Amino acid sequence: MRRRWLFWGCMIVVLGFVSLAGIKWLVSWHTSQNWHTPLAGRIIVIDAGHGGPDGGAVGGSTEEKDITLKIAQDVRHYLQEMGAVVVMTRDKDMDLADDNYEGRHKRQDLVRRADLINKTHPDAFVSVHLNAIPMPSLHGAQTFYHPKFSENRKLALFIQDSLKRNLGNTNRYAKPISHVYLLKKSEAPSALVEVGFLSNAQERALLIQRNYQKQAAASISQGVMRYFTNEKVPSD
Ligand SMILES: [Zn+2]
Fold first, then answer.
1. Could you tell me the distance, in angstroms and rounded to a whole number, from the CA of residue 235 to the centre of ligand 1?
2. Total domain count for the chain?
3. What pLDDT was estimated at residue 104?
4. In the chain, which ranges are continuous DSSP H helix?
């Protein structure tokens, strides 16, 4: 009888160690999974600015819509690698308005993009654009946000900080802006990135390079990732 108690006593201790080791292994496996997929379970909407009949800004023979699409597709790739589910407002050269919707075509396009964003109920929304202005000396990536939620500023600060660090060619800061329709309408934490100026010849030469587009996309994705991983919010 005593021997039997001893046997079961030993078994319980052994099983205890085995299950403890199992739990430890499970925890470390789960942590390593999170390390590789820090955005698992996150839904992100990415908007490639303009498209179709709306070419956006122009510099030389380059149209904004073509570069925003490539960068947005690269951002999708990087975010998916980190485990996010990514929804694009467009994935080819098109906009969301009806073909023959004269007059208020642009308005219909934007309204439909805003509907898509809010119906998706994303954890974050990022819109990708390029700039062109009559002052050819201006250059540098810049992130904008609507001041209605403090989360918008936080997301923009992370993205701008990552662009600054990785591209090494912008001293611009995350800036509040109130009149951008999609930022105003989005119910999710949102930011709009002006990746660079097509009106600056030097920056335009970079913006048409696939490597630079990927670098910019990786920076935007890194900013989004840092926003979700409880890192200390960078300063302006
Ligand atoms: Zn634009």
1. 26
2. 2
3. 86
4. 2-36, 64-81, 105-120, 150-167, 181-185, 201-207, 210-228
